Amino acid sequence: MEPPHEPRTALVGGGAGGIGSATAAALLERGHRVVLAGRTAASLDAAVAALGGGPRVDRIVCDLADPAAAAAAADDLRDELDVLVVNTGGPPPGAVLEVCEKAWYAAFDLLVTGPLAMLRAALPAMAGRGFGRAVVITGTAVRRPQPGLALSTVLRSATTAAAGLAAREYADRGVTVNCVALGATHTPRRREILESRATALGTDVDTAAARDEADIPAGRAADPAEIAAAVAFLASPAAGYVNGTVLTVDGGLTGTA
């Protein structure tokens, strides 16, 4: 039984835009206090203002690709942190045998060691209070490998496995750890991927987008708010028995595969 503890405090990575800011808005709507984490103060300040400012919205500047900084961001809030949304930017596109070692190491910190550092800093204190929610944002490439997204496919798969292990370790202390695997979503990251595909195909971005969406049963890319709604559910008390899972939000693209 979870203790009465409202409103809750959520730390949202990548909070300056895209999935992060949409998630922050969804959590605010549900009564949380939200702290946005990101690399630049100016973009975070703009995101705070867009969310209405006030005492329920704050920000912390840190590079989530730096494990020490990622851990410090969570540790700064350890006495009040109830919800951790591990959300980072995506690495550059590339084929698996074309990505150089330097790129693999850089992406490893961004997608594996940084997120694990945040979880390591946050989960014990959550467990000590008897309640906690960690949601790791991944992508459908962990279920359906995408050749042009080698870094994301390989390394987010590793983080997904690590999240599953953490979920088992803390499940009996009121803490859940889940992943949200998103599909095509209208974000700057999607634009980057489409530009890469358009270049490879010798076409324009609109044509690449149309080809991409033709494969999606829903016939369109997601709005970031639709991803945020899934995150908000997993962050809620109602999701207390949902643990160690990957919730896929992709318009039906991967189905049950």
From TrEMBL:
Q: Which Pfam families match?
A: adh_short_C2
Coiled coil ranges: none
Q: Which family does it belong to?
A: Belongs to the short-chain dehydrogenases/reductases (SDR) family.
Q: What name has this protein been given in UniProt? A: SDR family oxidoreductase
Naturally occurring in which organism (per UniProt): Pseudonocardia nematodicida
